[in-house]
Amino acid sequence: MSKANGKFSRDEIVRALLDAFPRLSVTEQQVSLALYRLLAKGHPVPMKNLSASTGMPLRSLEEIVGRWPGVYRNRDGAVIGYWGLALSPMQHRFRINGRLLHTWCAWDTLFIPTLLETRAEVESRCAASGTPIGLTIGNHGVETVQPASVAVSFLIPLEFEIQKDVISSFCHYVRFFASREDGANWVSQQPGTFLLSLDEAWQIGVRKNAAQYSAVLHLENLVDS
Fold it and tell me: Could you confirm whether 126 is annotated as catalytic?
């Protein structure tokens, strides 16, 4: 198996992600996917809305969602951020079906469109130079990118750190760069980080989605051999 970045193969990276992310039962996969798709409508998601979408009682949903890390709620208890997708302004602007949302890190913009089964327009900036970066992500990969040389920094996640605070332990290290040269300079100063191409990062996201949501999504045709 060739190494995606000179250090780790795609399979090794995906296994580390699956070990760090919550392990989802069939029911939890259904709840998680429904939560993503409700949040993508651009409004806080009350538990009653999630109940209506899944057909599950509120008490069961509270038990499931309450034990997941990476869930952010407002004062009323409605979900406003969930595993990479956010309503509040953040660095990465994520537009779907005309609605403006945001993501926690660069990689979120690449794996979330497949979960939503929709196209996303992404606006961000190079973490080194501040150069504007624009992407269009479809269900079959990166469709457009400006500039053409964009790369993504990445980090092998550790489960105990992810469970404690995914944003500070992982997302802060997963950024866009206008060129591999910009990215190489940055990762050389961040122990444990490395660079991926956009296609490599997207494919890792598809593989993660296919494994994590195996009971509710069928993505085998998108996974490279």
Answer: no
